[in-house]
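testing teh design pipeline on a random one, pls ignore if ur not involved
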């Protein structure tokens, strides 16, 4: 069983890179004009879910915060694809 130190030694630099990439993404959005859409809000909710460990693992909390939990199908698809975040007003 690896120790916390082993995990840090193996994965820290990769996680550091991803964190800097996320910060750069947020900076790019912030410095441009216009209003962000629901994906920006979804991204912030996912970050909050990641920072508040709870009863479920962080990865699961982030995925669930970005997932559509509706169970009823829509009458007709308007697009062929996904947005990666829940649109509260499709």
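output:
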């Amino acid at each position: 069983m690896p120790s916390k130190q082993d995990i840090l030694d193996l994965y820290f630099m990769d996680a550091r890179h991803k964190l800097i990439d996320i910060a750069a993404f947020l900076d790019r959005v912030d410095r441009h004009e216009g209003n962000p859409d629901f994906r920006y809000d979804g991204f912030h909710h996912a970050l909050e879910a990641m920072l508040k460990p709870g009863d479920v693992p962080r990865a699961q909390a982030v995925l669930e915060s970005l997932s559509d939990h509706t169970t009823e199908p829509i009458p007709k698809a308007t697009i062929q694809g996904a947005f990666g975040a829940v649109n509260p007003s499709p």
